[in-house]
């Protein structure tokens, strides 16, 4: 899945870790008792994800969104030892019905934890946006390979060819990312402004304590820092 290469001391992100202004102050106590559902429809309280260890929790727009699919493609390439060495829990949250989880994991190759918040209670209480905002200064996501036009075509085609013919979530809902735990401590949070506003995965991993950087360009490889 990955190979070790020469070390680097700085990763490429949306700017620099020192100058970024995307941190949003949130309180996970507001959502700790909200229920999320696994691929079998079994519910657990949201707080279960971060009570015992530090967790990187990614909220995606919807499972048919091309940019979310390609972002989760790269999340699935993270070597398990990177998470285990840093004692990080990686979780994806969607907002579809739970029965869409299995097919989404098969499509993306994502092997880690994934749940859904079908009523979007956590999305709403954390203040995640329902409309897209684009700015001239925004930099493209390093994890999204498709252009907007082709990406939209892919999304529509997948919707048309899915058994339920639905978009597997609210099309207007934006996502975000938080790093929380152990306990209710929030170390970092970001609310996406639009479908391309994902935080770089390496940055999230390093903020959570990972000591390796992964090159997602073609063949994923670990770069020890």
TrEMBL record:
> Which InterPro entries does the record cross-reference, listed alphabetically?
PXL2A/B/C (IPR032801), Thioredoxin-like_sf (IPR036249)
Give the CDD domains listed for this entry.
PRX_like2
Q: Where is the signal peptide?
A: none
Transmembrane intervals: none
Tell me the domain of life.
Eukaryota
Q: Which Pfam families match?
A: AhpC-TSA_2 (PF13911)
What is this protein called in UniProt? Peroxiredoxin like 2C
Q: Which organism is it from?
A: Oreochromis aureus (Israeli tilapia)
